[in-house]
Amino acid sequence: MANRLAHATSPYLLQHADNPVDWWQWEPAAFEEARRRDVPVFLSVGYSACHWCHVLAHESFEDETTAAYMNEHFVNIKVDREERPDVDAVYMEAVQAATGQGGWPMSVFMTAQGEPFYFGTYFPPEPRHGSPSFRQVLEGVHGAWASRRDEVGEVAEKITRDLAGRELDHGAGGLPGESELSQALLGITRDYDPASGWLGGGDTKFPPSMVIEFLLRHHARTQSEAALEMAEGIRDAMARSSLFDQLGGGFHRYVLRQRPGGPLVPHFEKMLYDNALLCRAYAHLWRSTGSGLARRVALETADFMVRELRTQEGGFASALDADSDDGTGRHVEGAYYVWTPEQLREVLGDADAELAAQYFGVTEEGTFEEGASVLQLPQAEGVFDADRIASVRERLLAARAGRPAPGRDDKVVAAWNGLAVAALAETGAYFDRPDLVEAAIGAADLLVRLHMDDRARLVRTSKDGRAGAHAGVLEDYADVAEGFLALTSVTGEGVWLEFAGFLLDHVLAQFTDAESGALYDTAADAERLIRRPQDPTDNATPSGWSAAAGALLSYGAQTGAEPHRTAAERALGVVKALGPRAPRFIGWGLAVAEALLDGPREVAVVGEAGDPATTTLGRTALLGTAPGAVVAVGTPESDELPLLSGRPLVDGKPAAYVCRNFVCDVPVTDPDRLRVALNGRKA
Length: 683
Description:
Distance between the termini: 61 Å
CATH class of the domain at 4-164: Alpha Beta
Strand content: 5-15%
Number of helices: 25
Structural class: alpha+beta
Radius of gyration: 26 Å
CATH topology of the domain at 4-164: Glutaredoxin
Helix content: 40-55%
Shape: globular
CATH superfamily of the domain at 4-164: Glutaredoxin
Number of strands: 22
Largest sheet: 5 strands, mixed
């Protein structure tokens, strides 16, 4: 018999709809039920592609005895962190403050007022490695609630009070300048290992998408060779490792070293946000360096997103699971992606199987588990026959398509689709792939049609063409606006600029503190939690704070809107405070600061549509590497894009105007001169 989650739109919640646990969604009625029964609330937070979330569910939430105990002594709430990032952020802050670490699944016990008093992540079914079993935790919490209620209440009140009293350094000391950006670069340099190309010294490596953008922009503005060398080293390390799907394109979530001296192996889930950010980063790496590897990775990642994540409605699904059926009925992490030598021989024959094993690093003993290997590129590609390798890849990919595929989380998240719109629009424009631009437009259309109401308010998610119930948060408004601004530059259509303006006006009205200029992750009129979440640091995606600063700055450059530029500058004060101390965790803010120091440059290209000279100038403008430059392309009489206003042809020829703060250099008609003006590469 299904529980209350059967009516959810979240695929993660639907995975728990048949649990014997009497789950509630996050809603006032659940807390009212806890008050009525005088029991604590158990909050379980996870997401569809989370491996250990599935493990906990199978071990405990599907167990009839455990579920019966939960139902008798708790009101149990299940939350999809991707659907309710505000709830996740508030309670994850409490978990990290209390335990020094966090992660998913997140397990929180709280009062009916939402005040937390006991925390954890994954709990095993029996005591293990110093961790209590989940049943022991449940019994301990119930015992404390029943016999030491005053003590529980005091703990809950203290934790809530401490969270509410935390002060964030908003960076009131002014804008970041050369000193802060140089210190940030030095901090990243200290963290960078030139031998491996990875950042950080631990065994787990996440893709530093936002740091790459900062490094590229810093190089473009200052010609720092150190910044470019690190960007190129990170590029090669990620692209050649098992982080990148060497057959189907796209990136896994992270890689880790399972044993000392062993190879890096991926956590196999594939997230839309990682792939959107990395697609754009590799496109920008190609734009800066002309790297053939960067071009291939950008295009293969874009093609992966369109092929495997695009939904029937034109949006992009959130994720592919790490686990899949291994062909014997077992649900195994990585089963879809790994290969044994024998499997290579079955598909390729002996000779090509030996070649593939050398090329992809497949060994007899295996580099992953049970004799299987993850695919990587341990040797230089140039030593192999390109045509033969292409044939090998094609045949292996076709064979892999016959395996049971990982599950897909079809939830469309506004913010991540905004990132995908920006990535696909720019990648399509750079590499003359109009199909990718069309895919970006399709997703943008869905966001306008389904996620925006008539007051330009966003809903966070949709599924199967049905909008979800939860309000968008700051990152939704910022990342969707970023996607619309990228479409403005690529298509020359002013409607996308108009939509971006609607969203950013809402950021100013609902998410910005009028006195300090600080930004909040939830709107002023959003549901009240025990703390209004506010975090300027990047995680797997740019923080809503930094993303909003970037979109506000670009919109101000496109339109001359002073309130938006001022808001961006006020928001960047936090980069001055945090950039020198924690550059890896505020990479997008540093990238936006680079754009501010450069202007950002405003590029207006005027000419008749269809004129090859106009097309060439427009493409040259898009390929310019000036940090955060905005581009407007259209006819001289167009009134859709403010940058084009008052910009005539020059001697009857299409022309480009390069400006800062709407003060322009002499217009140029020669693409080479425009390229020099924008630090660009040859088109």
